[in-house]
Amino acid sequence: SSSSSSSATTTTRQSPLQVKLADLANLISMIGYVGALLIALAFLTKKALIDNNFEIDKILIYCSSWQTVLKDITDSAILAVIIIVVAVPEGLPVLVTTVLSLNMRKLLQEKVLVRRLLGIETAGSVDLLFVDKTGTLTRGTFIADSFIGGDGSSVDSFDLLPPPLKKIGRVALREASSVQIAPDGSLVGGNATDRALVAFLGAEELKKIAATTTTTTTTTATTRTTELLFSSERKFSAAECGVSADLERLLFPTTTTTTTIATTTTATTAAVGRVDDSSSGGGDSSSGGGGSSRGGAIVVVKGAPEIILPQCRYYLTPRGSLKKFSGAENRAFEAAIENAARRSVRLIAVAVAPRGSIDMVTKTLPQPLVLLGCVGVLDKIRSSSSSSIQLLRRAGVQVVMITGDRESTAMAISRQCSILPTITTPATTTTTTTTT
After folding, report:
1. SS3 helix, strand, coil % of the chain, rounded to 5?
2. I need a labelling partner for 207 at 20 to 30 A (CA). Which of 3, 240, 338, 395 fits?
3. How far is residue 411's CA from residue 363's CA, in Å, rounded to a whole number?
4. pTM for the full model?
5. What spatial distance separates the first Cα and last Cα of the chain, rounded to whole Å?
6. pLDDT tens string 410-435
7. Which of 373, 354, 359 lies closest to 247, judged by CA?
8. Cα–Cα distances in Å, from 241 out to 147, 318, 351, 371?
């Protein structure tokens, strides 16, 4: 009901030009009515007084002839109606439409498409402009340039990841997107964010994946059994994909002699793999389970860090073991992603959950989650964004950026675009400016 009400308000709201034309029409109508009345009275005054030289006897004789008086009253009424009709600016709408059409042609020459003629004049009355970030202020081409692990460490290339993270990340980054890999290693389908995630694997890795496929068309290396698509309300997506049994046991072994985290879901009761509670990070857990050839499965979750991170009690260490988040590690990880966000980097959290943890009825976040890390995606600012916004501000237009990114990323981009002033004062001043 709210959307229909908003739509009705949008369609019935008059543009500034329509309001001005309505005011002009009311003014012309008032002048026409007053002028018609004055002209009618002047006509009668001429007939009754001026034509009789203001002589009382002649005026009385004129008034005694009701036929003559009635004829003059009728003539004055007709004259008044003529004045009112003539006062209506019939050519004004045609003139306005012609001028707006000429302006539309000029804008088309500047590669600006105008859907409604009234929008041309409305643009000249704008004092508050809402601008989308992605593809408008930025180029809309995403480049994954960093990976932040759960311990706060950061690398700028997939090849620099530790082998355990690389092994799982190879599957997670593919299955967290809808992009397919062609035989020549090129990426097909998916949105810009998905392509950036898969491209982070690197050209050599993509060629290796393409070389291992047996088809001649596009392919993904693993099989999805259940998929929960991304939603702007939930801010995450999840996909259950088939993997090797060894890889599943690495994260969620069903039996283990070491510490486990147990959870019960509607489809399965899964245990989260070996946990390292020591400060050293523990040993490599890739050997756990004994090399069964049976197929395994995990759930790959991708989404906004503020949604996924609070549900991750454990993360995968560079040595391949699971470690519980502590206060110090939380602070280190938060500092790492905050520093990335201040560089205008968009962060996408990637985590895994045990098989069967996707609930297609409630569509809630799968549990329990093990954090793999956050991929930093960079979308560079257009070269003309800052100068355009400065021009708008000098013209008295307030610019507001619309984005779904975290606050630090949004503020960094808005400063680069000159929406917010560059802050070089202490953090307290920064907080005050942000609040304002």
Report:
1. 45, 20, 35
2. 240
3. 31
4. 0.62
5. 33
6. 888 888 888 888 765 444 333 333 33
7. 354
8. 22, 23, 13, 17
Q: In angstroms, rounded to a whole number, what is the distance separating the alpha carbons of residues 368 and 312?
A: 7
Phi, psi (rounded to 5 degrees) for 363: 55, 40
Work out the number of other CB atoms within 10 angstroms of the CB of residue 62: 17
Contacts of 272 (CB under 8 A, 6+ apart): 251, 252, 260, 261, 262, 263, 314, 322, 354, 368, 370
How far is 399 from 129, CA to CA, in rounded Å?
Answer: 5
Using 50, 70 and 90 to split pLDDT, how confident is the model at 213? low
In which element (H, E) is residue 33 found?
A: helix 16-45
Asked if residue 185 lies in contact with residue 203, where contact means CB atoms within 8 angstroms, the answer is yes
Quickly list DSSP for 416-427.
HTTSS----S-H
Please write the tens of the pLDDT for every residue from 248-258. 777 776 533 33
Tokens in use for 387?
């100068």
d(CA 17, CA 101): 14
pLDDT in tens, 182-210: 877 788 877 788 888 888 888 887 877 77
For residue 247, give both structure tokens: 């890889």
DSSP-based three-state secondary structure for 52: coil
Q: Is beta strand 312-316 parallel, antiparallel or unpaired with respect to 369-381? A: parallel
